[in-house]
Write a structure and sequence with these properties.
By secondary structure, this protein is α/β, with parallel strands linked by helices. The protein has 11 helices and 8 strands. It has an 8-stranded parallel β-barrel, surrounded by 6 helices. The protein binds 1,3-dihydroxyacetonephosphate.
């Protein structure tokens, strides 16, 4: 049986003070739910939040990670640096990075590899745009996004990785995928992995992201191939994030 996982992605929101309050609020509401929980906070708040989560069940993650290990790469943050602040997870290939900052399938694969070299679990984000969905390219797009990583690091690397299916058209739009729409793609991803390695396919956590909220999380999480969520807007409020976590 796969363990579920709920991850908050704070994106570029908040202040130092509000980040501290939000982390404390989440920690205060944690209980021994049989699932894992993490927050991916802005880089500059990692030192503060890393102290707050110490000894709690709340794990920490980054929202990106450099595709190189060290050197003259102005503005980048390496896996070694993130490890120093106890990042358990790193998002790689979030659609906002792909759309606005030029992340390519190849650079996402390199980020995935960098994370793993420091024992950080990459959360590989995949998903199609509305246009791609309307042109029936959803599966093809996801194949390419997965293949770039598999080609670089091999399928065995997915022993220690998470996949997040985030349809771009559902992110921040309030238009969540229906339970069935999401399940269809999660099932597809699992079958795609199964064709390469059945054991990995059975155990890998596949999260859904895109306008997941307290009122739709239960339905999504009840789907057989949805193992939790990657939550944007609704993770900025401790109560709603915890409600989603408790929908598992
Ligand atoms: P929203 O939950 O705000 O739609 O964002 C989803 C997301 O992009 C999480 O990474």
């Amino acid at each position: 049986m796969r363990r579920s996982l709920v991850v908050g992605n704070w994106k570029m929101n908040g202040t130092l003070a509000s980040s501290e309050l939000l982390a404390k609020g989440i920690i205060a509401g944690l209980d021994s739910n049989n699932a894992d929980i993490a927050i991916c906070v802005p880089y500059v708040y990692l030192p503060c939040v890393s102290e707050l989560v110490k000894g709690t069940a709340l794990a920490l993650g980054s929202q990106n990670i450099a595709d190189k290990s060290t050197g003259a790469f102005t503005g980048e943050i390496s896996a070694t640096m993130l490890r120093e602040f106890n990042c358990k997870y790193a998002l790689v290939g979030h659609s906002e990075r792909r759309t606005f900052y030029g992340d390519t399938n190849e650079s996402v694969a390199a980020r995935f590899s960098q994370a793993q070299q420091q024992n950080i679990i990459p959360i590989l984000c995949v998903g199609e745009t509305l246009e791609q969905r309307e042109q029936n390219q959803t599966f093809e797009v996801i194949n390419d996004q997965l293949d770039a990583v598999i080609n670089l690091v091999g399928v065995a690397a997915f022993n220690s990785a998470v996949i997040a299916y985030e349809p771009v058209w559902a992110i921040g739009t309030g238009k969540t995928a229906s339970d069935e729409q999401a399940q269809e793609v999660h099932y597809y991803i699992r079958q795609y992995m199964a064709a390469k390695d059945q054991v990995i396919a059975d155990k890998i956590q596949i999260l859904y992201g895109g306008s997941a909220k307290p009122d739709n999380a239960k339905g999504l999480f009840a789907m057989p191939d949805i193992d939790g969520g990657l939550i944007g807007g609704a993770s900025l409020d401790a109560e709603s994030f915890l409600k989603i976590f408790h929908s598992i």
